[in-house]
Amino acid sequence: MKILISGTAGFIFSNFVIYALQHTDWDIVSIDKLTYAGSLLNVPQVKRHKLYIGDVCDYHFVRKVFEIEKPDIVIHAAAESHVDNSIESSNAFVTTNVTGTHSMLEAALHVHTPQKFINISTDEVYGSVEEGHSLETDMLEPRSPYSSTKASADLLGQSYFVTHGLPVITTRCSNNFGPRQHVEKFLPKVITNILTEQKIPLYGDGKNMREWIYVKDNFGALVKIIENGEPGEVYNISSGFEKQNIEVLKTIFDIMGGEELLEYVADRKGHDRRYSVDCSKLRALGWEPQYPFENALEHTIGWYKANTWFWRK
To answer: Which intervals hold domain NAD(P)-binding (predicted)?
Structure first.
């Protein structure tokens, strides 16, 4: 089976390519623009993996890849994802997250239609959840430029299923963590700031709640969705490990020290208080998380300690 994945030089899907090459017999074809958040060093250079360097917003480029490769499965993951950056300037988010999704959908519709087109999204499209858990059928209430563009991409993909019968599946995942995540993100920033004895900024009162999933558990979910997911459906992905930001910091401090580096800063604009999703539909496919939060966090810290080449500039 041949899998085409957009956005493989960054955090989640560079790890996914490594995972898939080790645990499946799939051939992997990648598309990546190599933005600041991606690196060729993240991309395996092996026979079963082919990389095309280019922009998903360039329809002629995307069309050519579909013509040559004719993938069985498409995973569209290329996106701008850092919320803080979207608040400073949303242009790249609208272009990549919406126009890029449109290019991929158009190529899948008009050039080569795969068995499944998996559109990777985020739990942030549901907006802040005061209590309970977001269901796949809940109204989307994105509250940042980032999550708004991802919600737009969600709806665009679902419209191609309804209108054209394109076999689109949407996944909405909670906060991933693990090796190779850019240091602008919360956990890598905390870990590397402790290692370099720099201040650790914490927004607001630190009590914003997030669900955390180790990146390998996300992969297990995606494999189940590739194998058994139904076109037209949406699947939430999360581990159920829900923690306040300050709780996460205290867990890291217990492992590494560094409490004296903590610095409370003004809250982020439009900072959602809590995300939490219901994963019953995914669990019905036979998936369960395998990696406890604390164990996976220790492994992640160990990786950043051992791979200073990745984050030292």
So the answer is: 4-299
Catalytic residue among 55, 80, 124, 154: 124
- Our answer to whether residue 124 is catalytic in this structure is yes
Residues 123, 136, 154, 217: which is the catalytic one?
123
How many Å apart are CA 213 and CA 211, to the nearest integer?
7
Beta partners for 213?
Answer: 176
CA–CA separation, 109 and 113 (whole Å): 6
**21-64 pLDDT, tens digit each:** 999 999 999 999 998 888 888 887 778 999 999 999 999 999 99
Q: Is 235 an active-site residue?
A: no
Across 77-87, average pLDDT = 92
Mean pLDDT score of the chain: 96
pLDDT category, 265, cuts 50, 70, 90?
very high
pTM: 0.95
Domains of the chain, CATH where assigned: 2-176+213-238+278-291 (3.40.50.720), 186-208+242-272+297-311 (3.90.25.10)
To the query of whether residue 67 is one of the catalytic residues in this protein, the response is no
